[in-house]
Amino acid sequence: MEEDMASVKGLTTEQVKKLQEQYGKNALIEEEKESIFLVFLKQFKDALVMILIAASIVSAVSGNIESTFVIILVLIVNAVIGTVQHVKAQKSMDSLRKLSAPKSKVMRDGNKVEIDAFDLVPGDLVFVEAGDIIPADAKIIESYSLLVNENSLTGESNSVEKSPSAEDMSDLPLGDRTNVVYSGSLVNYGRAVIQITKIGMETEIGNIAKLLGETKEKMTPLQKALDSFGKNLTIVILVLCALIFGIYVYHGNSIMESLLFAIALAVAAIPEGLNPIITIVLSLETQKLAKQNAIVKELKSVESLGSISIICSDKTGTLTQNKMTVKKLYLDAKVLQETALQAENTTHKMMLEECIFCSDATETVGDPTETALVVLAANYGHDVQALKEEHPRLSEIPFDSDRKLMSAVYAKEDKYIMYTKGALDSLLPRLVKIDIDGEVRDITEADIERIKLVNEKFAEDGMRVLSFGYRYMKSKDITLFDEEKYVFLGLVGMIDPPREESIQAVAECRRAGIKPIMITGDHKITARTIARQIGIFEEGDLVLEGVDVEKLSQEELIEMVPKVSVYARVSPEHKIRIVSAWQSLWKICAMTGDGVNDAPALKRADIGIAMGITGTEVSKNAASLILADDNFSTIVKAITIGRNIYRNIKNSIGFLLSGNMAAILAVVYASFANLPVIFSAVQLLFINLLTDSLPAIAVGVEPGNEDVLDEKPRDPKEGILTRDFLQRISLEGILIMIFIVIAFHIGLAGGNALKGSTMAFSVLCLARLFHGFNYRGKRNIFAIGFLKNKMAIAAFFIGFVLLNGVLFTPALYKTFGIAALNLEQYLMIYVLAFFPTVILQIVKWIKYR
Ligand code: ATP
């Protein structure tokens, strides 16, 4: 009894609750989440941290207990910062994952509702259609031309036909069980109602997941590049430190002391913060992207966003509003306004019938093309819902974007009628007759010419045109071979206005050196008209059709693509060729897609973009970016943010490296000039802690500005550490070093070695804090907006307070190697530390006036 109810009305909320308690969530168990404590412990396994631990032992052995204490403190604080960053990054990725979680249409409490596939339970009745991913293992209750691809389970790349059957197939091999479907398979064609049998780890794919075990986190390309740079740099620094150790010993310092110093120098100079900062900046910034409706699935795509130079976008719904309205019809060889149909006219009546019966939509839900047709019929007083219930559909061949037709069979009087609608190019070759004022006669060349002409005229006005035909059948069962010998009924032209934001977004693309391209299944002329309205099509551009693409060899296509701004009547496999052609020209190419067959093109593109609202689960699965609002302008916003993120990360790296450079150069100078120790080991550790964390992140999260759109897309072949960039870092390092050395000499002259070291240390600290502001953007700090980045201000003040805490707490003097400064000296450190920033700001002001 309960089973029966479920098969009609689905499960009730109570049943679901019970089942959920019993079976849990429909999810493959993710890797065990690391506990925070484990994450904390992991912070200690870094090579540098090992060095530090060694240093603390050295320090303890040499009787310098304060240093040991400070080193341990530094280690702990470092680990805490690392842990916090890790957890934050994790959280932000988790929330993103939730945003892109798959959905399912399911029957619950007698209603069809959409829920997270996560919340499915055994017994649920689920509706699946072309483009869906089967959410759990299930048996088929009802099916219409269902084709399922089970490649992920069976390795078989061809789709399998599936239909309900009472037979027990559990003894057959997986691939031969045609009355069940498995979690993770793709619905390639048709639709079905399925009843869930197993969820989560109990499913076949769950069993495989158990075997496969954990997946490793991957580094982004930027991280990989920096990782290898960091390794080389580490070697250079270690050699330098060894040299300095030698010099110190040579100058008569104890081996223990010299060793400690050399280790501290290594810690301060090696930019161990680079990779963690990239992770934290990327993951924080993905939240910004999500707020703008761009959901990124992998951190590495955030990096590529900034170098996109080609956007291939769908038309319908992405560039246009996807709100279709019928405007004109062509019936009885006459063009009519949508309001001019007459109730007593047989062809008019037939047309409205076909609008109702040959579509799956209702007035409010469904494919907008079909909604427009249903609304037209409703406007003439038809109760669409009632009619559909009264006249059940007997069979159908669903629409697909290759065939561009849809057919449905109904009983009419004592016969069967097949209604077919679709693109005129697809229907035209299948026409044999024409219906004019209820009279059916053979179709003539002249009829065809006129139909084509009207089709073009409608298309020139930017309308999507659907053609309608019908034929009477002996049997209600139809196959693809029955889609022929039609009677032509008429044409329907509908408008789908461009989104208002599209025009501006296209203009921004051009400003940013990005070429926008429209790829659509629609008619060539419709596409060109809309593309012209939006600004994608400019005079002199070419429009190619899918058939043209087919005729070209890949070499010819590569030569052609730069001139083409619109592709019409395109099938998914053409999209792959277009992306590949651009990639052969070394362009980073973004491609949107929503359909079942778009997945390969989305995977092929550098950034595959799926539609959050109308996209199929398959396309979302294949994409690296999901547009929550289906909107083209969101792509441009995402690119702007992507470019900003890249710039910020680069700035963060520059900030870290130039500061470290200043420190190491100052040490090198003091050692070779045979001067006293310029920084104590503890001071170096303190600086490392103070400036490598918060200020670097603050630079990394600088709010974006529109300026980035004035630049050309970043050349993907160009690494981040260009010659110019390294040169800039070196010059800044030298500049800061000069003022440190001046401070050192003033201190030495004004008292003793300790005073010199105190002044040099203070200037290094402060100058680096000031230097953070130099890295907030290209232009001077006032042009950027001094207060715009609150985190930068906060980071500066925290550093400032901590430094003064050390300078004014005599109890810390011994540990840090500090001597009390007089007022003059104290003011002097501010002047000296501020100088490099003043110079750099003036240079910026002159350069970008
Ligand atoms: P885009 O790639 O810009 O989103 P599109 O999705 O509008 O294009 P398709 O949906 O593949 O392209 O439609 C291509 C053509 O198929 C349309 O021009 C129309 O003639 C026809 N068509 C669209 N929807 C239907 C439908 N539901 N039934 C029958 N034919 C349709």
Please explain how this structure is put together.
This protein is an alpha/beta fold and 849 residues long. It has 5 domains: 13-26 and 103-214, Calcium-transporting ATPase, cytoplasmic transduction domain A (Distorted Sandwich), CATH 2.70.150; 36-94; 273-289 and 641-848, Calcium-transporting ATPase, transmembrane domain (Up-down Bundle), CATH 1.20.1110; 294-321 and 499-630, HAD superfamily/HAD-like (Rossmann fold); 325-493, Calcium-transporting ATPase, cytoplasmic domain N, CATH 3.40.1110. 51% of the residues lie in helices and 17% in strands. Strands 10, 11, 12, 13, 14, 15, 16, 17 and 18 form a 9-stranded mixed β-sheet that branches. An 8-stranded mixed β-sheet has the order 8-24-23-22-9-19-21-20, with helices on both faces. Strands 1, 2, 3, 4, 5, 6 and 7 form a 7-stranded antiparallel β-sheet that branches. Strand 12 and strand 13 (405-412) form a beta hairpin. Helix 10 runs antiparallel to helix 24 (632-672) and helix 24 crosses helix 27. The longest helix is centred in the C-terminal third of the chain and has 41 residues, at 632-672. The radius of gyration is 34 Å and the shape is elongated. The model is unreliable at 1-6 (pLDDT under 50). Adenosine-5'-triphosphate binds at residues 314-316, 367, 369-370, 399, 401, 404, 406, 421-423, 464, 466, 520-523. Residues 314-316, 367, 369-370, 399, 401, 404, 406, 421-423, 464, 466, 520-523 line the site of adenosine-5'-triphosphate. It comes from Fusobacterium gonidiaformans 3-1-5R. Residues 1-64 form the Cation-transporting P-type ATPase N-terminal domain.
